[in-house]
Design brief:
Number of strands: 13
Helix content: 25-40%
Shape: globular
Oligomer: single chain
Strand order of the largest sheet: 3-2-1-13-12-11-10-9
Number of helices: 11
CATH superfamily: DD-peptidase/beta-lactamase superfamily
CATH architecture: 3-Layer(aba) Sandwich
Structural class: alpha+beta
Radius of gyration: 19 Å
Number of domains: 1
Length: 349
């Protein structure tokens, strides 16, 4: 029945390939691929297929950040500028917590008018930041919430400065190697990657290959590639609290609302620390979507129901992969079928 739902959803949305993992009480109950990872060579999508996971990778950035908080290397309430070289004066009241919870007020570099012109260019990190360093804050830090890729880019620079390691090496040492996530690395199109999926766009009704998108643009804001097989190991580490203390994870999975606005009731979601906390009333649910040229991704953790769904697909038109994840979760936990998707589909998260 679940296969039928997934195949129907893929046909309706013209998704070439999709890989899914369902983990219940820490144990995988479905780890499988559907459709094609590469249309030109008719390569099937499997649990081993490697996708660009985009902003789902922010959960890795937040985890390493919180590891250093636990170790008292950095403080979550200190200004990010304490850990950066030559930051703009306007950022001096922005704390690490503001950034983790998307309340920094720093403009997102992905929102600047010429952003799509530069995505094909291999720019340096200072050149990426130069897109926003001269802009004023959108609001006073902590007052409101606005999705911000710049902040997560800055977290990568901070992690490099305080550890003396590259961001990619740090993820390998702290997360991927200990968890044997052998297929999960920083993306670069030049690298030979086993089981790499091709990414597709659907500008009209005809699928096309995605254009080049420079890895310099993504970095610590979502520059990783992974497989659902690897992400099962990630989910098990979260479930068992093997990388961070349970108390730290609870803090990350608690909503941290801004001072103004009723996001919890109006938008039905509020940022935690590196995760989005979804308003399912008495149910604790956290997740993160990812979207990048050619790919869409999601991880949703229904904490109280002890079920997690991970979805990777090689089509970027799927703006709410979490909607598919919730439907899949309902096959394993029927009570989830009775509750409405949050945020509602009309709301962008």
């Amino acid at each position: 029945m679940i296969d039928e739902y997934i195949q129907t959803t893929m046909t309706k949305n013209q998704i070439p390939g999709l890989s899914v993992a369902v983990v219940q009480e820490g144990e995988p109950v479905l780890v499988k691929g559907y459709g094609l990872a590469n249309l030109e060579h008719s390569v099937p999508a499997t649990e081993h297929t490697v996708y660009e996971i985009a902003s789902v990778g922010k959960t890795f950035t937040a985890t390493v950040t919180m590891m250093l908080v636990e170790e008292e290397v950095i403080s979550i309430d200190k200004p990010i500028t304490d850990y950066l070289n030559h930051p703009p004066l306007a950022w001096q009241s922005v704390t690490i917590k503001h950034i983790l919870s998307h309340q920094s007020g720093i403009p997102s570099y992905t929102d600047v008018p010429n952003y799509w012109e530069i995505t094909r260019l291999d720019l340096s990190k200072p050149e990426i930041l130069a897109l926003v360093t001269d802009l004023p804050l959108k609001f006073s830090p902590g007052e409101f919430s606005a999705y911000d890729n710049t902040g997560y880019y800055l977290l990568g620079l901070m992690l490099e400065k305080v550890t003396g390691q590259s961001y990619g090496d740090l993820l390998q040492e702290r997360i991927f190697t200990p968890l044997a996530m052998n297929a999960t690395v920083m993306n670069h199109p030049r690298d030979i990657v086993l089981h790499r999926a091709a990414g597709y766009r659907l500008p009209n009704t005809q699928l096309i290959n995605k254009p080049y998108y420079s890895p310099s643009v993504t970095y610590s804001a979502g520059g990783q590639i992974s497989s659902v097989e690897d992400m099962v190991k990630w989910e098990q580490a979260l479930y068992n609290a093997t990388l961070l203390k349970s108390s730290t994870l609870d803090m990350m999975w608690t909503s941290h609302p801004p001072n103004q606005g009723d996001d919890w009731q109006k938008l039905k979601c509020v940022a935690g620390l590196g995760w989005w906390v979804l308003n399912y009333e008495d149910r604790r649910v956290v997740g993160h979507n990812g979207s990048i040229l050619g790919f869409a991704s999601n991880i949703t953790r229904f904490i109280d129901d002890m079920i997690t769904v991970i979805i990777f697909c090689n089509l970027d038109k799927i703006s709410r992969p979490d909607a598919i994840a919730k439907e899949i979760a309902g096959y394993y936990c029927p009570s989830l079928q009775e509750i409405e998707l949050q945020p509602p589909l009309k709301t962008h998260s």
